[in-house]
Amino acid sequence: MSQETEHVQCLIIGSGPAGYTAAIYAARADLKPVMYTGMEPGGQLTQTTEVDNFPGYPNGITGPEMMEDFRKQAERFGTDVRFGYVSSVDFSSLPHKVVVDEIKTITADTVIISTGATAKWLGLPSEQKYNGFGVSACAVCDGFFFKGQDVAIVGAGDTAAEEATYLAKLCKKVYMLVRRDEFRASKAMVHRVLNTPNIEVVYNTETKEILGNGKNVTAVRVLNNQTGEESDIPVEGFFVAIGHKPNTDIFKGWLEMDETGYLKTIPGTSKTTIEGVFASGDVQDHYYRQAITAAGSGCMAALDAERYLAAKGDEVRVLS
After folding, report:
1. Rounded to two decimals, what is the model's pTM?
2. Which residues are in the FAD/NAD(P)-binding domain (predicted)?
3. Is 150 considered catalytic here?
4. Does 141 participate in catalysis according to the annotation?
């Protein structure tokens, strides 16, 4: 049973670009936002070494430094940033109830969900060892660093096919490692891959190990699951494109989701189907998944929350 209760106007769950941008806008609108960062303050970007595609950083910046800048800006306007995770929610009545760290209950007039999504990994120790040093789960984010080099990408769905063709524009050679003897991608995407001359599709192939020199990736060791033969493919970059898992488990049964668990919002807004609950960033976007689009949707969520509260205030004044 929760021992402590607190009421807030605006509660933000999650602390990546979406959450921090929502916090900046909400704080400037005097909503006095309280943010719970989750167990990974800054979200996925804290796993990224260089960020070169976010406007305003002409010389680039590391992901952790960028998130630190976002946090300081949110705090400058009065956001109460707290380390902690939301363990359960109850959206059955207003104000909404949220339990933090299993012990504290927050009641909130508005809730902005920015819990993001987590890239699925193969689960190899070498994958984590070289994450940010040749290993990436985002071709659009990191492909530029491998211009003119040889890279490998693992995956067989539409995302993998799309990222492989994106990399092919930048890289000398792209090895696409497909576990079975066929793609899971749509026919149109398969056609695009097969008609890109510098993509070599390697079927019936599993990744055994990512090899490196201690600093960077130098090759990928693969297993042909038909012949049982192992071989090394020399590459300088290794991209994992086997999907993302949105961090939405605690919202199951409360909010509408698509078949993979991404939160559904009313098109053109950040509004969920529950009054006063908004979603922004990768938790509701499986298409763009960029820091800049997450930040933009965080701005939308704060503006939607502010307008929702203003409309509620007008309602209360009319009724009284």
Report:
1. 0.81
2. 9-298
3. no
4. yes
